[in-house]
Amino acid sequence: MKFLKPKYLALFVAAATSPVFAAAPGTPSIGSGNDKFAIVEVDQAAQDYNSLVKVHDGADVKVEWNVWSGDAPTSAKVLLDGKTVWSGAAGASGSATFKVKKGGRYQEQVEVCNNSGCTRSASKLIIVADTDGSHLLPLNTKMSENNKTFAKHTDKVVAAYFPEWGVYGRNFPVDKMPAANLNHILYGFIPICGGDGINDGLKTIEGGNSFNVLQRDCAGRPDFTVAIHDPWAALQKPQAGVSGWDDPYKGNFGQLMALKKAHPDLKVLPSIGGWTLSDPFFHMGDPAIRARFVSSVKDFLKTWKFFDGVDIDWEFPGGGGVTPDVGNPQQDKATYTALMHDLRAMLNELSAETGRTYELTSAIGAGRDKIENVDYNQAQQYMDHIFLMSYDFYGGWSNTDLGHQAALHGASWKPDTNYTTENGVNALLAQGVQPGKIVVGAAMYGRGWTGVHGYTGDNPFTGTATGMVKGTWEPGVVDYRQIVNEYKGKPGWEYKYDAQAEAPYIFNKSTGDLITYEDARSTAAKGKYVLENKLGGLFAWSIDSDNGDILNAMNESLLGSTPTPVDPVVTNHPPVATATDQKVTGPATVTLDGSASTDPDGDAITYKWTQVSGPTVTLNNSTSAKATFNAAAVTSDQTLAFRLTVTDAKGLSNAIDVEVVNKAPKANQAPVINQMQSVTLESGQSYALHAEAVDPDGDALTYAWSVPADMNATGTDTANVNITAPEVSAENSYTLSVVVSDGKTSVQSNVQVTVKPAAKPADDVTPPDDDVTPPSDDVTPPADDTTPGSCDKPVDANASKYAAWDASKIYNNGDTVSFDHLVWKAKYWTQGNQPGFGVDAWEMVSQVQFNWRSDVVYNGGDTTTYEGNLYRAKWWTRGDKPGNSDVWVKEGASPDCK
Predict the structure, then answer these.
(1) Which of 16, 295, 443, 718 is most buried, taking the most CB atoms under 10 A from its CB?
(2) CA 831: distance to chain centroid?
(3) Is the domain of 610 the same as that of 718?
(4) How far is CA 859 from CA 6, 68, 468, 637, in A?
(5) What range does the domain containing 626 cover?
(6) Residue 325 in contact with residue 879, Cβ under 8 Å?
(7) How confident is the model over 378-417, as pLDDT tens digits?
(8) DSSP code of 782?
(9) Is residue 802 assigned to a domain?
(10) Do 554 and 593 fall into the same domain?
(11) E strand or H helix that includes residue 680
(12) How many structural domains does the chain have?
């Protein structure tokens, strides 16, 4: 045997341990976990504002990685767009968490190092969402219907209201808005929190449901702070560009953020108030209440950074809005100016904090009677624009006083018409308001009547109507789109234009249907008037009702000519690769699915799948959206990593890595059933039994119930079986069983059902009406000292058959109780709210006649008694005394109260 000399042995050992034999780490693979983070978090299931929104000073971003080849790393760092944001010690696998304070779309990489060198991963797109929309791709809306694209735009205000609810019936989300033809969007509406006595105007619509929803929205929030009325429409409804399940901001807000990325100069203002949401403003003469409101608006703008200021829609200072008994002209005049002063001071503070400029605007009534209730000359110093609502001058609220609803000048048959655009503008100018701050309103809808008759000559406006025309969504109001698509030019309809008033209308002589509205001609006349009088511009209510005709006319008239339409410029954006991790147990055919990948511009994309790490496999269809490979049976878990790269037709690409864990098989585990509780029923009573079972292996489960022959049952092959107790003459006990199987192993569970004979009702009890919940056993009879017949204190003889109201009990919609000798039904969840007249949570079921009450809402057709006479309401009313108001019709002497 030969031996190496010591000096050669030393040289060999040194060579074997030298860096020549060491290697840098292999390419790290970034895990395919969460890649979307948010600075302002939105709970996609929450309803109340406090639970909906959580504001942070930054997003906590977590990244995980693995190194599958080369020597183990000793350190790592994470880079966003090439800049190091985290560094530290690391091994073959690692993770890091770091805070990102600015929203955006970042290319994330992990670099791992050891003494032999460094290796950097492929980049992965991560999104840090913020409410300025910095994380979103631009939303380039298309010009649909009649909307044109203009080469030049006016420097005047071109604004439109976008109502929150337009995404429903009208199916008009933000991506349908011709945003390039607007420079202001007014988002309607942001509510102010408050219940009874603060938001009573909201009770007048949707049967009070909108009021109830606001109470839910404002749970835990102080009165007179702002919130979001419809979180689903605003933030949770998937829409184009923000439709992913993990997109932090969906709905209108998400789309508006993306819209501003495409149109950076576009101003978007939240409009606070509106017709049914204005009542809280009447309380703001109190400095403390006003300060609370202003502070909440500041918080709102800091939270929702895409907004550019605030619009106040108080309808109306001095009164005359939806709630007839609120408003004090002198007090409200001072309050309005103080409110504008405080809001401007707050916006100036916010500007100093953010470096941005914020606008303060207000939508105001155009009638001279409304304008005189505010000192706009004093308030204008705090305001950027005054949106003069030069529409709704006439409508279906009067069947005898008919007129143009949005006319520029006085009508041809009545030149001294009080309500016109011109009169509203002149009233503001007479106060000293700067012309450039006045923005004139256009209507993208019509108002109308039916049954118009008795008119003079060929002028239906001189006649009398029998009611409101059938509306698009509500009586008396017709969308412009419907007017031109279904009425104008159709048989029976005549189009006419009052050139003196600058107002169109259509009339159907056979039905007496008359609709006064705005069209391109009348809108152009308003635009010309704006230019001639050096006013601020035009705005419209509301963009979801227009087919483009009105907005085109707004732009064209403010430019002073008809511009030549041009094709819009479209910017290309990279596609977004989407695929998910998987766990399989071999042998199995695995499908790598990238079909959820998208291109923001709608371009066709190509696919390329490659293997990044793990035991080598053969990829089939690697250039298709779905690639496959065969995973072999393994004795220990194996992890394979794959990369999907998607590319659009213009060469822009995006990649994502996914992992497939091939798991070693495990012995099957039997399902587990939770023990069911025994049940006691009466004969004929129905009940749903639920088998709560889980499978530790995640296998699908099947169910098989065994039920006694004399017991009716449905759903015996599901987890929920519905049983009906059989007829018994004496108490009897039954055993029911359910067998749950995962396909390999089965388990059984039993439940005991005891059936008693049904209780017999007392002979002298009269069953309640079908639509009333039967009384419970703990009936509280009426007091002996009350008898039917008093109109001031009516008594329902059936009230004693219902359980008495309990202040500690929770009642839900439809629950019925007796209280004060009457039967009441809950309209929604309530606890501690005592039933009574004027209490919104309760509806009286008892069919009794009672004297008129000022706190009760009466709808058209409802009757009441007053001073011995029976009166019938012609329309909705509250607080209008019979005999002193046109809403009531005297029917004759009142019958006895029963």
Answers:
(1) 443
(2) 27
(3) no
(4) 111, 74, 16, 70
(5) 582-662
(6) yes
(7) 999 999 999 999 999 999 999 999 999 999 999 999 999 9
(8) P
(9) yes
(10) no
(11) strand 679-682
(12) 5
